[in-house]
């Protein structure tokens, strides 16, 4: 009897999300992407959601539960994120609210929808950032929201003790995605120079790490740094 493994990922239409959707599909997972646009992946189920709009839960909860029904294990990956630059002194307050809505409130709301359906052996994975544990100039809203993601993951680990569901927060460094490439070639070279391996991370590498975390409960409660080794100043 073949067990039905399901990946539910937010923001599965591009970047790390799309790479993860493809990687899990290679391992036999049914893939459900909860995002504004569909993932370019044959066989994937797309459920439309805009996490900046709190009304997404009312529209998406039913389709999500229906798509997950009958799963023997579920891996929920909170990947969607909003990055709005700005220093503490010049912070875009509305942008901070949107960042928290997308990066923190939406994962918490989705956990509430999905947890009743999760069998033992399932997992909840958060895609954080190097800014989940440190900060850099000009990224106050993003760093604050990603620190909150770390707190949500740690709370998940404690609250789900004994359920057989594990969690972790994967914290990518500079990853070669569409968003990063928008900064231009010179900026990419500079970012690559800031890590010991002198290159950018590929989305596939983060996807491989997410799959590893999904399959290994020993990582429960872990913050997993995936940054190729920042060069210390």
Automatic annotation (TrEMBL):
Listed PROSITE patterns: ADH_SHORT
Keyword line: Oxidoreductase
Annotated GO MF terms: oxidoreductase activity
Family affiliation: Belongs to the short-chain dehydrogenases/reductases (SDR) family.
Stated name of the protein: Short-chain dehydrogenase
Taxon lineage: Bacteria, Pseudomonadati, Pseudomonadota, Alphaproteobacteria, Sphingomonadales
